[in-house]
Amino acid sequence: MNLNRSIRWRGLDLETLEHCHIVANGRDTRIRGAIIGPDFGLFYRLKLDENGHTRTVRIERTDGKTLELFADGAGGWSDDRAEPIPALSGCVDVDIWPTPFTNALPIWRSDWADGQPVSF
User: Fold this and answer.
1) Average pLDDT in the 57-61 region?
2) In the sheet that 66-71 helps form, which strands lie side by side, from edge to edge?
3) Can you tell me whether residue 47 is helix, strand or coil?
4) pTM of the prediction?
């Protein structure tokens, strides 16, 4: 899949404004976004491998605090010091709470068939 697209949306339950840019080239997918909320702001970056598995996550708040995580694509995670994070073992995706975008990651990997239900 080749894609180079910007998307914007406004949150309903929590009043947010988000701008997201997605670049996919068949080798990987890179996603960059910014979210402005009523009392916070954050930037995020995700890198997915060619199979749509999350490989890197970087979240930076507007106050400068940063979280950077690295995944092996099979449920193993480490921090920016290459220390394993056992609490995340088995997780294959990240959910950045204020954005609905990260909920779509497992959907992107699905092998859809007409008339066949899919569970996530």
Assistant:
1) 97
2) 2-10, 17-25, 29-36, 41-48, 54-61, 66-71, 77-79
3) strand
4) 0.89
